[in-house]
Write a structure and sequence with these properties.
Largest sheet: 7 strands, mixed
Shape: globular
Oligomer: single chain
Number of strands: 7
Structural class: alpha/beta
Mean pLDDT: 89
Distance between the termini: 37 Å
Number of helices: 7
Strand order of the largest sheet: 3-2-1-4-5-7-6
Bound molecules: S-adenosylmethionine
Order of helices and strands: HHEHEHEHEHEHEE
Radius of gyration: 16 Å
Low-confidence stretches: 1-8
């Protein structure tokens, strides 16, 4: 169950602990493409993911592939008591760390491919925003299709699917195959330079 976040419970300004960096490096060396990054997202990139979300109206925000939680951190700083957040991460060690950092958050140790069931279990029928840190381009096409389809199925018409990347613009064409509208926000201060695809208007799956 997600508990509301009172302002006093919000995390302070973000500095990536070296223990998070080491955990990410270890996971990257062990699992490679399912982690896809040897370092947690910077605060610049994490802020860009949540910037311009209207938290006055957002009732449900889902994060997929939270890792050590840099985006979760920015999310928790901004959410209002009326916003439910569901944070999905498949790696148990990352989940342990997320629960230590965000004890009041709904951290789900599970596969983003099962987002349908995760939301149904919580009685959630509408989602305002999906924040994805998943390395979707390196997933098999059918898995990427299935995750995008099942997470956007619940999106409100004004909602967004936000995908972070460390390869600016490269996958714009890919996301345009899934969504009618794809904007890209460049974050040059991230190392390497990164950005966020803000997608809306789901077209349908692209694999036959
Ligand atoms: C590139 S890292 C991003 C981590 C974090 N969001 C960040 O910005 O630093 C990708 C994360 O997605 C997680 N992941 C990969 N496949 C997943 C899946 N099918 N379901 C849930 N999480 C997954 C990995 O364990 C990893 O934590």
């Amino acid at each position: 169950m997600t508990l509301p976040h009172s302002p006093s419970a919000r995390p302070a300004a973000h500095r990536t602990p070296s223990s998070d960096r080491w955990l990410m490096v270890r996971k990257f060396l062990k699992h490679g493409t399912t982690i896809a990054s040897f370092s947690p997202s910077s605060r610049f990139l994490s802020r860009a993911v949540v910037r311009d979300i209207d938290f006055d109206t957002a009732k449900v925000v889902v994060e997929l592939g939270a890792g050590t939680g840099p985006i979760t951190h920015e999310l928790m700083r901004r959410v209002r008591p009326h916003t439910r957040c569901v944070i999905v991460e498949q790696d148990p060690d990352f989940c342990t760390r997320l629960r230590q950092k965000f004890p009041a958050a709904d951290i789900v140790e599970g596969d983003a491919a099962h987002i349908d069931r995760i939301l149904a279990d919580r009685g959630i029928r509408h989602v305002d925003h999906v924040l994805s840190g998943l390395p979707l381009p390196s997933f098999p096409a059918h898995l990427r299709d299935s995750i995008i389809a099942s997470s956007t199925r619940w999106l409100n018409p004004t909602g967004s699917f936000r995908q972070l990347t460390n390869m600016p613009w490269v996958y714009r064409g890919l996301y345009r195959e899934y969504f009618y509208a794809v904007a890209f926000k460049l974050v040059p201060l991230n190392l390497p330079p990164g950005g966020v695809y803000v997608c809306s208007g789901y077209r349908g799956t692209i694999t036959p």
